[in-house]
């Protein structure tokens, strides 16, 4: 089970998610987990074990049926939709299997979207920060291109840059390497690991790749919605 | 540019052709609204100003709105009274003390008064015979009150003043009788009096019923023909402010007891037609705008459907429901505003085009005829058309915008991954 962590940045307590219906389906069943700052955690398990569902709950995209998620020690259960959106904007970053870049926007503009939404910096500082991020991810010369002009690996790195735009406390990734070849997949994981080590950003990634999962600090294995 | 607006405009730019069609739909709706409003209001204003120009603003006549009540009915207002065998009294008809009343009304500020005596007349010239309505007038007062003097095509009102047996014929009546200026006709009134009259003026108002059936003569002459000396049965009043006619008419009626009819009341039927005309116009134009609104609904629904993925990621990035709603409302608003601006141009062009048209009608001339469409230029039409299109665009965008805002990002992301 979970290793006790002194000051978890993200914590789940008794987290369950049941899809209502004539035959209720239990996606996540009483999960307790705590993630420390700078920790790199993999969620693994067979298909349909509730990996992604757990990630969406942790990322405040979905609401648990019971249990709660604490972000930086703050209970998110009583928050309304707008407050959760605010937390996602400021504290969380998402990377999915599909890049989900806005197709009409350049790579740079895509990275700027969360920053402009947050509007915490002047415009020039945002651009500078975005270019810096892209540079760190090896995309400096791709900034003015549109997503359809990029390779699969570049798109996924651009998506990571966007997820990191507002310097989140936790980066949540759902099968981020699912559409990538081995080399690009390894690059993504290298980025995650250095991100966790260098900036203290916690990274939680869902993966079914045993080889990649082995590179993380900790593995959370799910079977039928339960941690085992 | 604000982020939400950037996203909204990007969506529209991605569907340029459909956006253009929607904008055109709104533009045509607004343009037609402006043109139709200008046409209708222009025609109605022209008609009203013609009516105000030609006819008196108030006509006080020797009629009463209610028949005289029998004394028994007055004595027992709550009783069940039946009076039978009532014969009409053979009164001397006319406005009692008519000339004195006319003089009294004339003392009101901004008021022109012309007393007249109206009756039937039979005109004979050679073998041609016509009957006509004769109006005995004071030519000088008539000139101030109506545009009769301006409608003269031969002779003048002044000629009626200078000779006591003068008569002014409408152009159509003169033609039917075969009479021209200076000809002597025989006039016979229902009273049996027969006199010889001289054609001193010929007029054309453009209203056939007038030109064919009304003759003017000096008041004295009409009184002699009708054998009603010093009697007038119409007091026509012209005000400096025509819109006050109903109020003034009500005061006159209350004071003198005779029926005082304002021009609004006299033309009530036409004003009712105007109301129906406006209802037809606004429902037609409303239908165009509703079709345009469906266009907006359609494009925004399409964008929501197409951009479901983007909506999902924006929500996961931390956009609230209200942000998503705003994006799509802005898209509707953009179509509505651009459409309204284009519609103003279309409306302006249509109005300019319509007002440059010229028609030629045979006969021509006179107060009621016009060789062109009368169009009313009004800023109000532009504002109303613009406001209507923007509001309908917002309403049309609202439903898809709400649907987009309520999309669940988890469903979207699961559907794609």
TrEMBL record, chain B:
Residues 286-409 form the ABC3 transporter permease C-terminal domain. Coiled coil: none annotated. InterPro entries: ABC3_permease_C, Lipoprotein-release_system, MacB_PCD. Keywords: Cell membrane, Membrane, Transmembrane, Transmembrane helix. It is found in: Cell membrane. It is a multi-pass membrane protein. The chain crosses the membrane at residues 20-40, 280-306, 327-351, 379-399. It comes from the Bacteria. Residues 19-254 form the MacB-like periplasmic core domain. Pfam families: FtsX, MacB_PCD. The keyword Ribonucleoprotein does not apply. Belongs to the ABC-4 integral membrane protein family. LolC/E subfamily. This is ABC transporter permease.
């Amino acid at each position: 089970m979970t290793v006790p962590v002194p000051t978890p940045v993200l914590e789940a307590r008794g987290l369950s998610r049941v899809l209502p219906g004539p035959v209720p389906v239990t996606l996540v069943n009483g999960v307790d987990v705590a993630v420390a700052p700078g920790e790199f955690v993999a969620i693994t398990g067979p298909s349909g074990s509730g990996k992604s569902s757990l990630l969406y709950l942790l990322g405040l995209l979905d609401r648990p049926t019971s249990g709660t998620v604490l972000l930086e020690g703050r209970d998110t259960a009583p928050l309304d939709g707008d407050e959760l959106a605010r937390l996602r904007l400021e504290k969380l970053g998402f990377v999915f299997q599909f890049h989900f870049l806005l197709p009409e926007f350049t790579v740079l503009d895509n990275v700027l979207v969360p920053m402009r939404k947050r509007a915490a910096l002047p415009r020039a500082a945002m651009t500078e920060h975005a270019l810096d991020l892209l540079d760190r991810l090896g995309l400096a010369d791709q900034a003015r291109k549109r997503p359809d002009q990029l390779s699969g690996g570049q798109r996924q790195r651009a998506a990571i840059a966007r997820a990191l735009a507002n310097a989140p406390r936790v980066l949540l990734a759902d099968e981020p390497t699912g559409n990538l070849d081995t080399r690009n997949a390894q690059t993504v994981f290298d980025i995650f690991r250095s991100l966790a080590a260098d900036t203290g950003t916690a990274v939680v990634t869902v993966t079914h790749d045993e080889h990649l999962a082995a590179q993380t600090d900790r593995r959370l294995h799910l079977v039928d919605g339960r941690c085992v | 540019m604000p982020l939400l607006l950037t996203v909204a405009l990007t969506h529209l730019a991605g569907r340029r052709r459909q956006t253009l069609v929607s904008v055109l739909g709104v533009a045509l709706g607004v343009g037609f609204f402006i043109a139709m409003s200008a046409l209708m209001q222009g025609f109605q204003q022209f008609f009203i100003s013609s009516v105000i120009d030609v006819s008196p603003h108030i006509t006080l006549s020797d009629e009463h709105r209610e028949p005289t009540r029998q004394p028994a009915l007055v004595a027992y207002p709550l009783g069940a009274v039946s009076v039978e065998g009532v014969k009409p009294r053979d009164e001397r008809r006319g406005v009692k003390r008519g000339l004195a009343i006319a003089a009294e009304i004339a003392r009101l500020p901004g008021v022109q008064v012309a007393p007249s005596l109206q009756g039937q007349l039979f005109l004979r010239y050679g073998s041609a015979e016509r009957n006509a309505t004769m109006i005995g007038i004071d030519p000088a007062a008539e000139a101030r009150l109506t545009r009769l003097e301006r409608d003269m095509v031969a002779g003048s009102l002044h000629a009626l003043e200078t000779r006591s047996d003068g008569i002014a014929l409408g152009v159509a009546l003169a033609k039917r009788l075969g009479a021209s200026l200076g000809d002597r006709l025989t006039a016979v009134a229902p009273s049996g009096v027969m006199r010889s009259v001289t054609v001193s003026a010929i007029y054309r108002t453009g209203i056939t019923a007038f030109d064919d059936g009304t003759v003017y003569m000096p008041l004295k002459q009409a009184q002699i023909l009708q054998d009603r000396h010093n009697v007038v049965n119409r007091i026509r009043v012209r005000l400096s402010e025509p819109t006050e006619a109903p109020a003034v008419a009500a005061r006159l009626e209350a004071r003198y007891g005779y029926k005082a009819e304002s021009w609004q009341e006299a033309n009530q039927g036409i004003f009712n037609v105007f109301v129906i005309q406006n209802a037809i116009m606004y429902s037609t134009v409303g239908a165009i705008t509703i079709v345009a609104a469906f266009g907006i609904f359609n494009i925004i629904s399409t964008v929501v459907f197409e951009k479901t993925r983007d909506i999902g990621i924006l929500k996961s990035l931390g956009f609230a429901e209200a942000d998503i709603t705003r994006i799509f409302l802005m898209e509707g608003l953009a179509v509505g505003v651009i459409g309204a601006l284009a519609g103003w141009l279309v409306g302006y062009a249509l109005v300019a085009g319509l007002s440059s048209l010229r028609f030629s009608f045979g006969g021509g001339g006179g107060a009621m005829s016009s060789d062109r469409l009368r169009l009313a230029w009004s800023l109000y039409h532009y504002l109303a058309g613009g406001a209507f299109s923007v509001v309908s665009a917002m309403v049309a965008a609202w439903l898809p915008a709400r649907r987009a805002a309520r999309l669940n990002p988890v469903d979207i992301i699961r559907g794609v991954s």
